[in-house]
From TrEMBL:
One of its GO terms (molecular function) is copper ion binding. Keywords: Copper, Electron transport, Metal-binding, Periplasm, Transport. Binds 1 copper ion per subunit. It comes from the Bacteria. It comes from Sagittula marina. This is Pseudoazurin. Residues 2-86 form the Blue (type 1) copper domain.
Length: 115
């Protein structure tokens, strides 16, 4: 989780992960003022929400297959999001209407280009 110096964009690196069920992802706040939280509208059925604290390193195990949306809540509307696909995920699944415009644009780019 960081702010890119060249563009000023607040991003997760990588912005997209493809993992297996049971894998654990560690979220590191490499710059102050960020954290990771699941996006409630972008959780597979039965998956539990998670939310870190500002500047906190957290590890999350992803057991349920599907697409997970991740956000930094203070910067969500500015497009600080990432996508984690657990197992095989239908690439055509639409983004929920509740996702803010900049976050939606960023997620669409992530899904199209992988960045």
């Amino acid at each position: 989780m960081l702010t890119r110096g060249d563009t000023g964009a607040m991003v997760y690196e990588p912005a997209h992960l493809q993992i297996a069920s049971g894998d654990t992802v560690r979220f590191l706040a490499t710059q102050r003022g960020h954290y990771a939280a699941s996006i409630p509208e972008m959780l597979p059925e039965g998956a539990e929400r998670f939310i870190g604290k500002i500047d906190e390193e957290i590890s999350v195990s992803f057991e349920i297959k599907g697409r997970y949306g991740i956000k930094c809540s203070p910067h969500y509307a500015m497009g600080m999001v990432m996508i984690i696909d657990v197992g095989d995920v239908d690439g055509a699944s639409p983004l929920p209407d509740a996702v803010p415009r900049r976050a939606r644009d960023r997620m669409s780019k992530i899904l199209m280009t992988g960045e």
